[in-house]
Amino acid sequence: MTEGRVDDRRFQDLLAEASRLAERRDPGAAHDGRVKALLSGVAHIADEVVFQLNRLPELLRGPLLDVLGLRPARARMARAVLEVRSAGPVTVPRGARVSTVDGVAFSTEHDLRVVPAEPVGALTQVDGGFAQVIDLDQVHAVSPAATSGYYVGFATPLPHCLVEFVFTMASKSRLEDARPTWAVEAWDGEEWQPCAVRLDTTGGLSDSGTMLVRVPDTHVELTISGISAAWIRFRGAAEPDASPIRFRVLARTVGGVVTAAHGSLVLDEPLGTTSGVPGQGLGVHHRPVVGPAPVVEVGGIDGWDTWTVVRDFTGSGAEDRHVVFDGDTLRFGPAVTEDGAVVQRGALPRADALVRVREYWAGGGKHGNVAAGALRALDGFPDVTVTNPLPATGGRDAETVDEVWRRAPFALRARDRAVTAQDYEYLAREAAPELARAHCVLGEDGAINVLLVPNAPSDEMGRVDFNDLGLGQKTLLTVADYLDERRVIGTTVVVDVPRYGGVTVVAQVQRAPGMSTARTHDAALRALYTYLHPIIGGPTGTGWPLGRPVHVGDIYAVLHQVEGVSGVDDVRLYLVDTHNRARGDSATKITVDRDALLFSADHQVRVLAT
User: Fold this and answer.
1) CATH code of the domain made up of 413-496
2) What is the 3-state secondary structure (H, E, C) of 229-264?
């Protein structure tokens, strides 16, 4: 029988069964014309009854799910990292529209200001001491040792900007193949943050070439050796006795990086006025509503009052300024009868008060998961080029009633208690929908460890900043409290993040004839960062599996699939300490405990012509 149907039989099935019964009772009766007409009429009536019965469960699904408090999940917006290139200064505001040739539209999630990179000088550091360099174009001698560094100061901070450093080597000292490239870092007000190196044709400052560096959004000024500037430093990792590198360097801004979401940012939308009646609903004008909770304001005596969007009115009192978004309709609290008394759930605004939504996002859907390079047109900026080096990810259609119906038994079973590992994982995501992953692992002491992975953003190469993999205490406590109310008595539940291990891949590949070195280099790096990605990586594209090791054979297979790579000469793996970024010995396989998760850390690819 088909799921959700009372009876699968139709007219011909019913008629055939009635004819068999008639033949069994009175052989030959089914061949009588009057009997055949009677059986046909009865079968027709039975077919109509079965049809109406089959409709009943479907018609009742929506109301029954509402009573149970199970609502379809909203659509989700896909997100993409955009690389903006501009020959001069430009400001791209939050909400700017960028689209594909097919009209799939995204909007930028924050402002981007591409400002000129104006170097004010440089410093060289040796064992804690600084020597000032005024002119970047003169030859500098810098040791690649770990205790040394080269600092370039700019007149203003360059958050989100792409800065191109052109190095011309006067003399060079090649490092061993196992040595990492120089770390590029920017000061954020408290510590040095790593910069994503978008392109490096210098081979780790072993040859003349270009470094394209993405500056973190937290870049601020710092005073070093009496010079106040916005600093970017290059820190080596060679042995103390390594011979110095002599070079000239030029720096300029070539663009910036901004994140975009598949939807439209709607600002200051009036919804109408209140009626003063409990449970009033006001619909928004752009649908469907997606993303963060909208900011709702109601006109009061002294101006606009902000009302909080909640999931439901279960815990709302008559004084709580709470609203609920039911689909795409904003609803105020209802009046319900409890123990014979009428109780107002959620505050009731005064009549004729103006209601507006300060901001919300509308859009979403799986068709926002566009391919890399699909986003090309930035509205209102004809002299600016834009692209998404990586595919947009995270888009999902709104859940249908049928899909909610299918998950309802599990949701109801897991709602009140957590018994299995799947229960804990489901409930953790229920408590914090913003999480990307949740894993339940039994600890050696018998405790149930629920490990949470946030939906950390990636840059244009697929890198994830280790700092973005942490979770705030608010989220951890929210999930812990939610699970504590539903755990089996006697069990101990610990909510935390996985233990992370960074992996650096050092590879040498051959470039196919006719392919550019830069394009092959970028494609290979992007493939590595995507494969060893905690959210979209792994063999299935759903995130690198918890506790899974990585073998050089896996990396060979990934690199052989990269466009422009005709062969892979060498692959080395290094485990990287996430705290001090120290690299371990070269290995052919890196293993981790079952509660640990690997992620990419500063891969290096050297491209050779065939």
Assistant:
1) 3.30.300
2) EEEEEEECCECCCCCCEEEEEEEEEEEEEEEEECEE
